[in-house]
Amino acid sequence: MQMLSRAWRHTLVRHATLAVLGLLVAVVVLMSVDDFRNRQLTELAYMALAAGGLTLLTGINGQISLGHGAFMAIGAYTTALLLQDPETALPLPLVLLASLLVALVVGVLVGVAAARLHGPYLAGATLTLAIAVPGIARYFSTTLGGEQGLRVTSPEPPAWFLDALFFLTGTEPSNSQYYAILGWTLLVVVFFLLANLIRGRVGRRWAAVRDDEVAAELAGINLARARVSAFTVSAAVAGLAGALMAIQIRLAAPTAFELTLSLTLLTAIVLGGLGTLSGAIIGSVVLVYTARIATDVGTAQGLDSIAAAELAPLVYGTVMILVILLAPAGLVGSLLRWRAARAARGADRRTTPPAARPTDPHHPDGPADQQRRPVATTKGDQP
Amino acid sequence: MQLLNTLLSGLTLGAVYAAFALALVLIWRSTRIVNFAQAPMAMVTTLLALELIDAGYSYWVAGAVALFAGLVLGAAVEFLLIRRVDQSSEINPVILTLGLFVALHAAAAIIFSSQFRSFPAPFSIRGLEVGGTTFGIGPADLFAIGAVVVTMGLLVLLFRFTDVGLKMRASAFNQEVAKLLGVRVGSMLTLGWALAAVVGSLSGLLIAGGGLVHPGYMDPVVVYGFVAAVLGGLDSPVGAVVGGLVLGLSLSLVSGYVGSQLVPLAALVILMLLLTLKPAGLFSQAQARRV
Q1: pLDDT confidence bin for A70, thresholds 50/70/90
Q2: Of the candidates B86, B100, B230, which has its C-beta nearest A124's C-beta?
Q3: How many separate domains does chain A show?
Q4: How far apart are CA A170 and CA B110, in angstroms?
Q5: What whole-number percentage of chain A has pLDDT above 90?
Q6: Chain A, 13-52: which have a CB under 8 Å from a chain B CB?
Q7: What angle do the packed helices A175-199 and A35-54 form, to 10 degrees?
Q8: How many Cβ contacts (< 8 angstroms) between chains A and B?
Q9: A382, pLDDT greater than 60
Q10: Least trusted range by pLDDT, from A28-37, A286-295, B278-287
Q11: Measured between alpha carbons, how far is A251 from A83 in angstroms, rounded to an integer?
Q12: Residue of chain A whose Cα is closest to the Cα of B227
């Protein structure tokens, strides 16, 4: 028993156990629900995947990106181009890997430029990226299909996969179930890797750069390298999510990758709480299901279908504003903070009387424009 | 001849981008926030004007109502939201304005419909004819340029020669000191946002004139306005105007000679080159940040 609890304290063991359990639950759920739910869950998988990549960049490393839809577009178009001809197409794992690599290379390029920027400048630059990339697809209409986009011939499930699942569950999985299982496997594997990366040396460097760049630099961290590596990993994950999206919707078209997609990803990580991977999943769940519920409510209230579809963004735009005003750490972050505060209160009561605690009126950041209101920093209490 | 026409149409675009960039700069100077929601704010007021025009009011009445609506909207956004955001993290205000962006978009699509609708121009949009050749600039374009120039003139008068302008400049320069000297900084910031929203609404009306409007029609403009503002250094109103004109002309050249689909990419290239080579912009005296 004691050995188990010691093993549990080991990050790798804990993450691996959670990943295996998560994968098992996912496969069981996916095999027992119908095709419609499977398609919905695949959508959830690629949104959560991209949101996880963005969490790493914005939440852990402190670089905001409004252009992650662009990296998804790059992944999706790579997949679409590689799957054009089903006769000569590469095997699916290679296609996914290629999409990831292309997004990674572009991520390095953008990351090098972005590493010099901060706050609103970075936001504006990535916003421009989000608007520019669909334009490229429209311009090269002969190779990239222009406005209509490229059709994707989604691969059939391989025989060994069908056999294995038939052996395990006694039923033959449908194509939708295959894509859903593929998506959730990728999600679990990538999140497992990301979770270890974040907990390790690399992740601590990223967080150090976010919390205080001067201190990080003094501690010997190469700021530019930390920023570029975070951007690269994040872009690669978004590219993989884009590849999955192309396989699922069987199309790579510019309209799917407009600004809305990038803003949706940002919404997901804000709702869940910047800085936790579980927040990225929760945010995506809230987003994907709120969209459906809001649309249903709108239709029931007598709105036409186009207006009803807009209810969801209205809700989550409003929620985004409220979250930033009331609970800047998001759903998961606020819970964690509440727990940390309670623990700290308990510890305080045991050690020092409250009057003895120092109160420092001077915030180390100088400029007057930051001193409009008491500074309550949320930094440091993110895991 | 094609070059001349391309440049002339670029001039009109540049004037409108300049107005939009100016709105961004006004807000940046006073509250250190880039208002990404400027685009949907201008879109909402323009669609309001279109509703009035469709209801039979004249262009001028509708335009005036739109500008006034911009004033109210800008003040309300500052008073209700911006004032309450925790600015200790640079990301919070960005996300706030983006949340507003998403919400206003959706609200406009529900209230005004998300279809493409044509917006009338106050004057003919056909090019001027001189001696048998048609130039790429018409009365409507001249009106747009004139409106932007007049607005800028009024802003200069306000900031240079009035008491309120001086107080607003003081609040933007140093809030603590301005407060000690008895300036009601909060009201000045609200006023600053309101004025910026009016300028933004104006650019929304001018871009819409003679074209199609829908909830997303201003989205690229916020990018071009931002690039123009960064060209000028984000801090400098003069820089914003020059940046707007430079950007309008260059994007017009790209659109005319390469392809309109690549215009946003050109804006991205310009922005990246600028931020790499001269991050403080062409006109700013601000210290460059070292990384």
Answers
A1: very high
A2: B230
A3: 1
A4: 48
A5: 23
A6: none
A7: 20
A8: 179
A9: no
A10: B278-287
A11: 11
A12: A124
Beta-carbon separation of B175 and A373 below 8 A = no
Instruction: Give yes or no for A274 touching B (CB within 8 A).
Output: yes
Residue A168 lies in a domain: yes
Cα(A328)–Cα(B101) distance, integer angstroms:
18
| Nearest in space to B110 (alpha carbons), one of A131, A72, A304, A24 | A304
Q: Is the pLDDT of residue B4 over 80?
A: yes
- Those residues whose C-beta lies under 8 Å from the C-beta of residue B7, and which sit 6 or more positions away, are B249, B252, B253
β pairing state of B129-130 and B212-213: unpaired
Residue at token pair 């008073």? B79
- DSSP for B23-72? HHHHHHHHHS---TTHHHHHHHHHHHHHHHHHTT--HHHHHHHHHHHHHH
What single-letter DSSP state applies at residue A368?
G
Question: Of B98, B230, B273, B289, which to mutate for an interface test with A (greatest number of A Cβ within 10 Å)?
Answer: B98
**Contact assignment for B100 to A321 by CB distance below 8 Å:** yes
pLDDT for position A350 = 63
Q: For B179-220, what is each residue's pLDDT tens digit? A: 888 888 888 889 999 999 999 999 999 988 888 898 888 888
Residue A85, domain extent: 11-256
SS3 B213: strand
Q: Which of B75, B62, B38 is nearest to B203 (CA)?
A: B38
Interstrand relation of A150-151 and B129-130 (parallel, antiparallel or unpaired): unpaired
Rounded to a whole number, what is the distance in Å from the CA of A251 to chain B's nearest CA? 20
Interchain pair B109, A223: CB under 8 A: no
* pLDDT, tens digit, 9 for 90 and up, residues A34-64: 888 888 889 899 999 999 999 999 888 888 8
Q: A76, exposed or middle or buried, with CB in 10 Å at 0-12, 13-18, 19+?
A: buried
Give the C-alpha separation, A232 to A215, whole Å: 23
Q: Which residue has the higher pLDDT, B187 or A355?
A: B187
Task: Find where tokens 């990106």 sit.
Answer: A65
Q: Do A92 and A155 contact (CB within 8 A), yes or no?
A: yes
Residue A271 falls inside a structural domain: no
What is the CATH architecture assignment of B2-114+136-277?
Answer: Orthogonal Bundle (1.10)
Compute the distance between CA of residue B72 and CA of residue B193 in angstroms, rounded to an integer: 10
Nearest to B102 among A213, A223, A263 (CB): A263
- Which A residues, 302 through 331, put their C-beta within 8 Å of a C-beta on chain B? 303, 306-307, 310-314, 316-321, 323-325, 328
Q: In the structure encoding, which two tokens stand for residue A238, read together? A: 């978004």
Chain A: nearest CA to B265, how far in angstroms?
5
Residue A85 belongs to a domain: yes
Side-chain-side CA neighbours of B32 within 13 Å: the count stands at 20
* A354 pLDDT above the threshold of 60: no
Across A144-153, A164-173, B101-110, B214-223, least confident range: A164-173
Which residue type, as a one-letter code, is found at position B75? Answer: A
Q: How far is the C-alpha of A298 from the C-alpha of B106, rounded, in Å?
A: 13
What is the token pair recorded at B24? 């961004």
Q: Where are the domains of chain B?
A: 2-114+136-277
